[in-house]
Batch of 4 targets.
Target 1
Amino acid sequence: MTSRGARLVVAGTAAGALIVGAAAPAALAAPGGGPAPGDAARDVAVLQLTDDDGRPTDLARTVADLRAGSSVLTPELEAPEFYVAGVTWAGGQEPDERISIRVRSGEGWTSWTELDTEVVDGEDVGGTEPYVVGGATGVQLRLDGGDGTLPQDLRVHLIPPEPTDEEVVADSAPAAAELTRRVASSATATATASGPASAAQTEAAAPTFGVLAATAGAPSVVPRSGWGAGYSTPAWTPDFYELRAAVVHHTAGSNDYTAAQSAGIVRGIYHYHSTSRGWGDIGYNFLVDKYGQVFEGRNGTLAAPYGLMAEGGHARGFNDGTLGISVIGDYTRVRAPDLVMTRMAEVIAWKFADAGIEVRTASGYRSPGTYARPAGQQLPRVFAHRDVDATTCPGDDIYARIPALLDDVARRVSALGGRPSTVHLRNVATGGGADLSYPRGRSADTLLVGDWDGDGVDTVAVRRGSRYEFYDDHGSTPSSVVVYGRAGDDVLVGDWNGDGKDTLAVRRGREYHVKNSLSGGPADQVIVYGRERDRVLVGDWNGDGKDTFAVRRYSVYHVKNSMSGGEADHVFRYGRDSDLVLVGDWDGDGKDTITVRRGRSYYVNNRLAGGEANSVFEFGRPADASLVGDWDGDGVDGIGVRRLG
């Protein structure tokens, strides 16, 4: 018996407790004396079914029983009570076999459930989706298909409602029996010491965790501290990206759980993702149970700056810039409660309103090609896991209701209207207080910075869909209102022709439609540059008075000094992929360079090159959105922030 990623626990040698292939259920529990009361009842039981070479242990069938297309069954194994189960294997490759599980709960053995695999590129441990249940004490695994070669280090993780970070692994019948005896003894000793709970105590034990009160359109959310997010600091430091879409999920397993059990299920999923899979944290940003309780998932989700979202681990290739929300339960064959759909709409609308997202527009993501959507199809702002991966998630019922969910989100975002926002502007890129502050727009609006009249002073414009309010000064009255483009366009600001006035360009995939005046009508120039998923920056990189594009791929920047396609004129690497990047002329030499932001710290680089920052300063609050402009017309860009009320 070994322990993955934690302490080593040596089992006893109780023999004969597990009979492989027996017609009757194999008993893991054995009578006899046990260890002193402790945390053993909270340890995660792990049954190892194959060794490092893929050979079955004596908890699984023998090699002689294997043949292509056959099933590999474990016995019906008794186990310590668990709320979440998951299956892992060595390496990040998806196995050929289809993995199914069934469990024994209070109503007997469930039917078989095929588990979707969740493979993350480059990971050392592959795994299935988590299987949730409102308390089970038996498990059985089946593998169908394949060529008879089993995955290496195949394990079943059985996670109790209040797990420690210990994963105690059994790979033999005696070890499995000792593991369950040890857990049962610990649980009995703890219960004896505590005494039986009264009905009143049991009722009082139903959810008493902290809940964040709803404010400004936000639903009530149980924060990580409220459900007990772990026994140690998450090893996966959150990165934040501009929120563009929401991905809808469900968990596998049973819908037969109580409201009081939901927090334990969330803790189990947390352990499975963070420890069993080795991710360091839970993958979802939010989880919703069938009773309408909403739980914060990924660290940093509630603390994310406005308009940004902590990167999760829920949809391969689509984790940055999306909100992953998972319904606890399986809604493949049964209807999800209306309350579940309402809560999801509330959560998504809340975050979309803060990000100023136009719900009816395309997200900018495209399907890689699944059985649900063809490759290259534009994805809406709310889409399902099955739209981007080979999975049945989020179940047929929820999937069929996503168009209605999108409508509900759009209605709620419109009703919220967003919170009022204030800009705080500092004339130099240094720490200190703001030189100028004033209200501008609401959270559902997009703010754009530019010199709209050519007087050398940058001001803040408001975009609301395809309607733009431009201001020639820092006052409260717009100098012009223009309708241009489509509501879902990705809009860029720059002086494209060198006349000293900033205008707009809209990006649609790889195409850039450039306009040299603040007016409607067709674009003055259309160019094709870069890739669809590039992050685009605008600046006067060579000091010729004209703004052009640069594309960012991770921490590599491809700079173009002319408004044309073709190869980049300059390529350099700077900062981290997760950095927020700002563009400005920080030293007044007429050339724009980049600054990266981490929290409220800004790292200014006065060259288009790697290396150390020329200066570092702090400004604003971590939740503020950043603005850059020459607020006083002195030829040097300053810093600013947008803060929601």
Target 2
Amino acid sequence: MIVCYAQGGGLGHLTRIRAYLHTVHADRPATVLTTSPFAADPRVLGPHRLLRFSGPIGPVLRDLRPETLVVDAFPAGIDGELAVLPAGIVTVHLARLLRWDAYRPLSGLSRFEQTWTLEELDPEHQAHLARRSAALAPLSLIDPAPPEPAGIADGTWLIPHAGPATEIEELVSYARECAALEGRRPALVLASPHRPPGLPADVEHLDVYPVWPLFASAERVVSAAGFNVVRQMRPWRAKHRMLPFPRRWDDQFTRAARARREITGSGGGREDR
């Protein structure tokens, strides 16, 4: 049995775990441990089993007796609850950018048979994982093939975001600002699990998952700088406008800065703020 720890309140951990299971395990069914409310949507986990848990995770793992434990993002868990991993199972870590100076006190003594680095890490974070991993290697994730996506009109500026209404409001304002700088008045489409209260009437709402199949046809994509959207937008980096948000552990600001350097380094597109 494969058990995946995907703790966190957002959608990103689940999207990343789903892509990992598709890329490495050919969608072999797994059990996903999470408290994310987005896991209730059957489109998100697909063939994989959801197991919600509360309290200490140790008894849950003892009951499940997994062959493999996959720990997403946080090597010692979101609150340090995986500082020491149970013996006798294969342990795998999926590493992405963290605010390492903030997270380091929780980093613990966990050891991994395999750590996959999914993007460039802070050097101290990378060094820590090298010390705690039998094998350390980069991995490029591939998302599962989507169902037929909803269509969007030519010239649409797409705003994909599953975060709170306050952040959606900021992204809509940022999209309008970017459009004004280009002398444009495009149609705006928000792709989000729920239509937030107060969304302007001229912004269309789509509840679509996955949203990445719409990226190719959108004229611009205006988003935060979470791991998945930045990864999925790599083929269309020049039309990506990023507004990073502060997070407890994720470092969206460093990720956005790196993505913008890809644009200016390749000579394509404009660099947004």
Target 3
Amino acid sequence: MLSAIRPPDETRRCLVLGLAGATALAGGGLAAGALPVRDTLAPALGLSALRQHQGAGLVCAYFGLALLVAAWWRLGRAVRGGDPPSPRTLLLVLAAWAVPLVAMPPLFSRDVYSYLAQGAMVTAGLDVYQAGPSAMGGPLLAEVPVIWQHTPTPYGPAFLSLAAGVSGFSATDVPLGVFGMRAVALAGVVLLIACLPRLARSCGVAPAAALWLGALNPLVLLHLVSGAHNDAVMLGLLIAGLTAACAHRFVLATVVITLASLVKAPAALGLVVVVWLWQRALRRSADPPAAILPASRPARAGSVSDRPVVGRRTATLRAFGSTACLAAATTALVTAVTGTGYGWVRSLTTPISAHNWSLSSTVGRITRNLLEAAGSDLAASAIPAWRWIGLAAAAGATLLAWHHRRRLGLVYALGLSLAALALLGPALRPWYLLWGLVPIAAAAPPHGRVRRWTALACLALTVTVFPSGFTPSVDELAAALAGALLAVPILVLYAGDVAAPVRPYRGTEPTAW
């Protein structure tokens, strides 16, 4: 307890640097964030005039973002250093970094306004899987980006019931609705950080290393905490379900992971982990579930009996059947209670837009332009074809990961599968990387390269979306660059401090990578 109250010196420096960065970022968001179109939020804070200084807001926001990202990266060195912080200390750091972002307008996305509009449609009895917010109209419509105003929702009934509750409570009060949706997202983040250390221990990874990569990384702060994306709820439920499965609580695990998939569909892949662990439990009289560990990190001797209880085929059929029945019953019950129907199944392609910058869509646009220049009639089919190729590649990567599940471990294989789906699928947003990143943080080999590359990907994706959620102009890009450059002298001064010594990995304990 004392270590959490008085963190190590290097951790304290990171906390202060990151807190300063988060405060500057949140302050810049008052002028350059994803503010309501109608001037409702700023007057409530008495800061209406800041909306007229977007350039200065961008300078302040990117100054803070540079400090926050540098603090997180340096904290990674502390985690694998000579005086590493405890998990409680890391949670204290996370709370300090998150507080300024919680109290301010959303950043980097306007999706929270779409959530409110979709929740209002559910409350009004409209079919959100047939029409977009334009079918309802009203003051919330102006807050939804034009590209999504006529688009049905892709989200499952579990999330829509939460959005409907917030929308019904806040009515047309946009600030109250924004903070209500943020409270929902924060509940998901709290569930995530409560279960992640336990899941990491089950996978043979140090909880501190898992928290640094999976909970304190900038994508969580920017997009789950500040942006209030519903991926926070999905990930919280998914990690909670995986933790329950590792504890042999398979019924609970199935129900919770099904609820996660009724927020966003990709979480359904987690049910594969439940089926595999359940059939292992049926086949062997085991106490701790060794199946989640890769072959290179076996369970302790004597912890698992090798005496089969039932045959492999019988165990697999029973596990699959039980999981499928529980998942179907949970889906039917939630759908009946919310009354939204099963339209979300046919709306799973909704996030795809003509301007999507996913890998497959980008290659598709390049191919289309080349075919148009050549006068080919196949130009119109280029983007759909490449999207299907991307999905096929994601499916192939998923099958390959599960083929090597004994060497990788089940949770690690799940993380790689979700990462492949996010990167190779038809739609890509920075926060989609978190689908795979969080399981990878809990289960990837502590001394492997995947952690380092995943961390680098987090750094790259922090600058791919602007605070307003819109495409920036040249002047806005210049303001953002100026803000980042202003942070350089401070970072140089901090770099002059004596950094925590990094101990080489000896194969006896996890490191931050």
Target 4
Amino acid sequence: MNTSIRRVAFAAFLTASSVFLAQDLFAPSLLAQSAGNSGTITGTVTDATGAVVPGASVSVVNAVSGLSRTTMTDAAGHFQLSNIPQNPYHLTVTLAGFAPYSQDVLVRSLVPVAANAVLQVGTSSTVVNVDAGDLLEGDSTMHTDIDRDLFNKLPLESASSSLSSLVTLASPGVAADSNGLFHGLGDHASNSFSIDGQPITDQQSKVFSNQLPSNSVQSMEVISGAPPAEYGGKTSLVIQVTTRSGLGVNKPTGSVTSSYGTFGSSTGAVDLSYGGPKWGNFIEIDGLDTGRFLDPAEFAVFHDKGNEQNLFDRVDRQLTDKDSVHLNFNLSRSWFQNPNSYDNLNVQNVVSGGAGNSPVFAAVGDTDQRSKIVTFNVAPTYTRITGTDSVFNFGPFVRRDSYNYYPSGNPLADLGPIQNESIAQQRTLTNAGVHTDFSYVKGIHNIKVGALYEHTFLNENDELGIVNATFNAPCLDANNAPIAGYTSTTQCQGANPNAADNPNATNPFLPVLLPYDLTRGGSLFTYRGHTDVKELALYVQDQIKTGNWLFNVGIRGDLYNGLTKASQAEPRLGVAYTVKQTNTVLRASYARTLESPFNENLILSSQGCLNAVLSPLLLCTPGVSGTLQPGFRNEFHAGLQQAFGKNFVFSGDYIWKYTHNAFDFSTLGNTPITFPIDWHNSKIPGFALRADVPNFHNLSVFVVMSSVAARFFPQQVAGAGATVGQSGYPFRIDHDERFNQTTHGQYQIPMKFGKIQAPWFGLNWRYDSGLTAGSVPCFNPTGANSPCGGVVQNGQDYIDLSKLTADEQFQAGLTCAGVKATPTAGLPNLCLANELTSQLVKIPAPGTEDDDKNPPRIAPRNLFDASLGQDNLLGGDRYKWSLRLTAVNITNKYALYNFLSTFSGTHYVTPRSMTAEVGFHF
């Protein structure tokens, strides 16, 4: 079957599925049950005589994640708790006149867990007793569980990337970056989301896509250990997301919230849950408007407005006792300005005479670049219980990101210190596929067999023109510096006595670029790229529990067919042993994974160097292959989990990862046009730790910390240009960080004023030792693995600052001999090496810089965030008003995320911001 026929057949299949589901959704007798990452606990409550007990309260609690769910038994004594994330729980049954009943329940599959209860006559109690055993999971893979009750009160740094902020704060091994980007366990954003079982492995930061709104999330499990066989593609972190459901919500329940804060930021959100025993609907709509949408290149905020709108709808319907369907629908749109620096204000460029010997320069306005992203996702799932021990799952899906980048109205205003081009882009990524799996739980075995097929359609449409009058100059001045004007080397000698041909300069004159030089009367160059990426995965895994031992064994096979082809057999192994006497779990795991290339601008990176116009603009490296090859990784983890009593649990892993063909990103100038590149290999050792105090006298605390090296090894083997790592020596990539930690504490004041509970408050402390910042100037002209350079004059060592503008020096916080750079007044071109200092970046001591052992870094920073709230201001029973105050960076710390990063440029952390939110809940 040829490609076009396969596309038509697959489209017809999706259309038929949509029609079938539409009939189900709008028919009165049809609507769905939980599936994907969640499970179901079901059972019957009886008394000692065997008679059923209606009206009993059944609760499940996970003390670490914070999940707490309660239901009542029906007239037949039956209960069902759906949409329960796959974790261990403490189940309690209470009813007046009976002694409380409790048991531990483990949800690790889609197969419903039977938890029948027999109540004995006695004294009733509503107290849930948690012991050390309830804090342990006994799993071979380290992960972090987060329920909505926790992250509802967690002060998050970014309103436009709340899901990313949540992962960064709550999961160990994550390096925080700007614009909602987070780097898991030393890799560049090699993370994947599983949304109710739907895999999403494409970039989810807010400059690539629109994230799932956090208000639609019920719980998350962040896997930082070796991934099980069901996960592939991008596996540094696997974020399992369980969305909110209306199944079993017999009364309409929801919230209306609104907030206003610093930078003119305002939000509004509405959510509604409603359903019955066999159907449910959850819908959420929210919007954001702010004057600081992205993290800008200046601590001051200007030209940074943005807005975002989200619609999420989840429908569940139990068709029969064995069959159910579940549909997720998401539509999001964001529009935002690309932040300016002071260098982008009142831009000077050629306004006339560009083809002659006397071009006229004048102000062409401020840079005004903008972006728009529209994302939609449709993911139906059909689930059938095929036996008391088995469940079948089938879920097609289609997701589309449409990214539009708009240059300034006057393209000449896009000129910047490192931006030579004005660019427009319209890029789409459409990911369609189907996942299916069969789960079987019997005795000591928990088996899952599954398959995944994905077809990703990539379209890249770019228009660009040169806006730097000296970038492709035909002529040089007496100092061999390129000069503006002229369109041919034949004009140089006759038109200017000091001019000379420019055949061998660092950026030689290339006639092929002349038609697209907007400073010399040229027009825009158009590039069109399209490709399909097809991926097929098959896997089988088994979790074997025998005595105190737990074994996770599995194997996955991946077939990748895009611009290149690759296949990989990937064993996954894990073992855990529980020492019950000491409440200790010892564990170790291994995974081999196929690492697939990033899809964003994959065609431009793979084929751009074959294009005569694009090649010099992309800084293509001679001898580097264009097409990015999938890589492979061997990953090892060893760790333990330890509970101390019922109030403290600790978990930690040592990590060692070796990747052949390790992926990174590069960028075209200072534009949002970023693309993947491929280094020969990477070595990533480190550790990740987490400690929890679930609840101690109304105080809950968690601490996450990590130290992960990100050592990459040349040569660059594929992709377009890069500006680092060409020395042949290993280097620390720009998201390498020696250490970071987050401490979050939350306290509920144990006082009541009548029916009104006293408020709660929370505090975050985030410490980052600083990402690598290779563009920081330093002195080491003799270092074998140092690009620092330097100047020696009269026996004294100087650092050359001439390549940085005054504003870039100011952004780095540079001070020379006690004189600080300002946005308009730079430092001398040469500064004594021992007199150049900064509080924003760490400059290695003269002669010590080494790209692997001692690279320049962003200065360490401590950031503090706080929140204060009252969930029931008026003490209502059915209707409640809430108030929440959030402060981010309460000390107004003046600090950087990064400086002239190869991937993302310069970005400051958020200045102090205050937000007040009021909500009505029913």
